[in-house]
């Protein structure tokens, strides 16, 4: 099995005419890349989680907007700007919780507006492409930095619990919550043990994190979500690393459904619980976790997906919130590329210059 680090989660094609993504819905069995050009294809790829994980969604949206902008036929700048605004809003409607989506789209939009009176349509298109490239390259560096800070918290032989997938597949490279483990491997550490919650209902832990860690040669154990408690009680977990889709100004954060339960368990068992997030995921405009929009998804993901036949009675009510909010009081620290923020988080974010 190839090391997952060798896979490109998201990139532009060589001729820069299409968005290429690894279709994560097919992992771990099939490694298949999709080449996307049309607005509906790009929107669908984000909505269906073919490309997923907050930073990777941001990169896909930035490259996606560049591809759509490149398809504009005229040379009238005002028409171009209006067209790009429509495409930006359309892509932004694909998923609500991960702030990196709107962050990346707004970054390109701001760049466009700032330069629209100085440049031609052709030059503006090139500028958007360069900015999308920068978002991608910056994300690689950011993830490595998060990995280095997280690595400093680890000890030889540690058991690390993670939830969902915040690894290389969720970012441009390396990941956030799994980045410290990649850095540890670079230092020759071969004695860490990673426990992956399977992460119902879409199984990002089983299909993606377990695949990533195993392919990198890490001792990997898969747990059903409801096994985290006994695993902690048995003393197998020394530290918890999870990712985030949006961190509020007070340190509350949204991450994959089930994360807040893991945090409550970690507090009960006295296990350090860290959220690993780039500053692009910290949304100072969102005051608390109550203000984070939570994506609700289709009931079939709970009742039918992965099963040979439907496993719940017809007509039963199903709730399927895709994310939950972990209260900041449960969080030991938030590992960013600028260092580790400790409570009180609002003050720590300000000290780090996060706006
Ligand atoms: O629905 P998903 O798979 O996009 O959810 C992903 C997560 O919750 C990740 O933990 C989060 O985006 C952080 S990725 C570095």
Architecture overview:
With 355 residues, the protein is α/β, with parallel strands linked by helices. The protein has helices at residues 39-47, 54-70, 77-92, 99-115, 121-151, 179-186, 204-215, 228-233, 259-269, 300-303, 345-351; strands spanning 10-12, 19-22, 33-36, 159-162, 193-197, 219-223, 239-242, 246-248, 253-256, 273-276, 282-283, 323-326, 333-336, 339-341. The strands form 3 sheets. A 7-stranded mixed beta sheet has the order 6-5-4-7-10-13-14, with helices on both faces. It has a 4-stranded mixed beta sheet with strand order 11-8-9-12, with helices on one face. A hairpin with a 4-residue loop joins strand 8 (246-248) and strand 9. The termini are far apart. The relative contact order is 0.12. The mean pLDDT is 97. Residues 49, 52-55, 98, 164, 166, 170-171, 175-176, 204, 243-245, 255-256, 322 line the site of 5-S-methyl-1-O-phosphono-5-thio-D-ribulose (MRU). 5-S-methyl-1-O-phosphono-5-thio-D-ribulose (MRU) binds next to helix 2 and strand 9.
List keywords for this structure.
15% strand, binds 5-S-methyl-1-O-phosphono-5-thio-D-ribulose, alpha/beta, 4-stranded mixed β-sheet, single chain, 7-stranded mixed β-sheet
